[in-house]
Amino acid sequence: MPRQTGTPVLVGKGRSLGYFASFISDPMTMTRALHERHGPFVLLQFPWSRRSRPALLLCIANAELYRAAFAPSEIWRGVKIHYGFKNHASDRLAMGMTRLRGARHAHYRHLFAPPLSKPAVMASSPEMAALAEEEVSSWPRNVPVNLLQLTEHLMLEFAIGLLFGGDRERAMPIAKMITKQAAATRIVPGGEFLYWMSVAAQQERAILDWAEEKRGNFDAQDILSIIVNSPDETGGPPSRAIIGGLLSFTLGAAYETCQNGLAWTLIMIAQHPKLAGALADEINGALAGGPPTIERIGALPLLDQVMKEGLRLFPPVPLQFRKSTVATCLGGAEIEPDTELMASIYLINRNPDLYGEPNRFRPERWDGLDPSPHDYIVFGAGNRMCPGFIFAAQTMKISLAAILSRYRVTMVPNARIDYRTRVTLLPYPGIPVVLRDVAEAPSAAPIGGGIHKLVDLSGVR
Fold first, then answer.
1. ∠ CA 168-88-109, rounded to 5°
2. What is the SS3 string spanning 105-165?
3. What's this model's pTM, rounded to 2 decimal places?
4. What's the CATH superfamily of 9-454?
5. Per-residue pLDDT tens digits for 103-123
6. What are the tens digits of pLDDT across the range 154-188?
7. Can you give the residue ranges of every domain in the chain?
């Protein structure tokens, strides 16, 4: 997609009906088709809107437009990303960071800063490496396994062990319900929505019971303890919506976004055998039999390039949403209050003017490439950037080192790899692989499925 914004293109409600129908079934295919046909700035008219005052969805796939819309939080606010019923647990549990504004958002961002700061995350490197080694060493060899389940459990171990007090007995059942909550998103609710509605009250009760156990016992490294034992932005006690919603949001974000980024990157490595061999050699040379601490692997050039490229192609949150709070102007278009905006991070990260062969996995492109934060969006950019991006990057890098120093990840031949767009971009329904000894010669098995809509694997062997 070209960098130039050009003139915004209006798609009337008759033609927009097909795009909205396509969006319900496959948001990634729809947004790509929309922007390839109409350019990086499209005004998509809702089919039910009135001619006298058309309701629009602004669709952008351009770094400059993203910067303009996502920097001024007083003009463009975050939106609710989960469905729920008013005065119901489902609505309270949707009180994540994306719904907080102004003083409330600043207050909780400040509260969460210490455990997610660079010094705190770097200090956790030895413990993180030990967790990774213990978890990964138990993975079965030479039999088909679902890599998605393994990476999910690994990331849950990091999140619970390092950010939520290590209480796996309490946290694991809640995490499973949060995974169901993620299916009830504004992008594609799906059939899981009704199921989550039936367990939302149970999820809220489990969180509040867990929170009560932490009340009066402040732990500066435990995000739930911080929420419970700190006054809200007004000086009063935190509401159950704040406790339940922020716990659901932060715990879910801490493991699901990292899990998906790690899983997609491992698929790419498995499909590029020469790269897999070189990467394993680089990692094992740096480790020299020791644990994969960030001190050992933090400056490995190929590992860094592979991780950047995996996250470029498969950003954990491929579509982001905002809503205008006042009348404003964007890219030459006059925008009414309460107008919704959808930004395709997926396409911004594939700008062919910046990334040659944008749909190919080419880690070597990062040798000397230094895009702006708005040209390479992984965990957001600007003042709403995810506060946990340092934690996420370190868990991914340590996980890759722990896995690739021990195993040669090989796809099951002719495995079907599809995807589902929730809040995150999820490999679906699983990733069938065989984990072999790292000393075995790498090879790429053919795979099928929707993954070929997302990345060009032609000619890769």
1. 55
2. HHHHHHHHHHHHCHHHHHHCHHHHHHHHHHHHCCCCCCCEEEHHHHHHHHHHHHHHHHHCC
3. 0.94
4. Cytochrome P450 (1.10.630.10)
5. 998 999 999 999 999 999 999
6. 999 999 999 999 999 999 999 999 988 887 776 66
7. 9-454
